[in-house]
Amino acid sequence: MSRLYTGTGDGGQTSLLVGGRISKADPRVESYGTVDELNVAIGLARVQAAQSIPPSKQRDAMLETLNSIQDALIRLAADLASGGKGPVSLCEQDVSAIEGEIDSITAELPALSNFLLPGVTSSEITFHQCRVVCRRAERRVAALPDNPPHHGLVYLNRLSDLMFTMARLSIQLEGASPRVWRPAPKTS
User: Fold this and answer.
1) Residue 114 falls within a domain, yes or no?
2) Are 116 and 175 in contact (CB under 8 A)?
3) Given 2, 5, 46, 63, which residue has the most CB atoms within 10 angstroms?
């Protein structure tokens, strides 16, 4: 039986997919580690949506989209871990798929005229958690000094918008009302 642990990272170094070792504090490791964290958050959102949102074609489509997103995030993490030398990466079709989902879901939602406060349903809040982790992943990838993957950056940018859109849809599918932020009245 092989062991899961090797001890090779005990000194603060890790191996890249294409060979070589770098510090675990390297921006590249931080970028793919944050994409991995996002993948876990998406998985949690998927579980929460499956448990909390009543069965419907919309919920099933949402769950299938989340499956596709997790696949894309594994490809992005592999691309980042290989320094762009790996066999898989994101492409224009991945970005287009996200844009199509945003457009499709937005067509089913009321127009947005106010800022919304997170924290209506358990599904909605997990989508907002995904959104903020996605924004952090985008910042980590953008900070890479050696040409971050273009489609990866665009994908993450669109994905955070999709997570916001799915948060709004989950509220609607659960029959709840959004929390609208209202600025405090001005006092003189």
Assistant:
1) no
2) no
3) 46
CA 36/CA 8 separation, integer angstroms: 20
| 11-50 confidence digits (pLDDT tens) | 776 666 666 766 667 888 899 999 999 999 999 999 999 9
Q: Let me know if residue 160 belongs to a domain.
A: yes
How far is residue 86 CA from its own chain's centroid? 21
Task: At 177, list the tokens.
Answer: 């009302």
159 within some domain? yes
Amino acid letter, residue 115: F
Supply the pLDDT for residue 125: 98
Q: In angstroms, what is the C-alpha Rg of the chain?
A: 19
What is the model's pLDDT at position 3?
76
Helix (H, G, I), strand (E, B) or coil at 175: coil
Provide the residue range defining the domain that includes 31.
23-108+120-175
Q: Is 43 left (phi over 0), alpha (psi -120 to 50) or beta?
A: alpha
Q: Is 82 helix (H, G, I), strand (E, B) or coil?
A: coil
**Paired tokens of 175:** 């029959």
Report the C-alpha gap between 186 and 77 in whole angstroms.
47
**Structural contact between residues 83 and 104, judged by C-beta atoms closer than 8 angstroms:** no
Q: Which helix H or strand E contains 13, and what residues bound it?
A: strand 13-15
CATH of the domain at 29: 1.20.1200.10
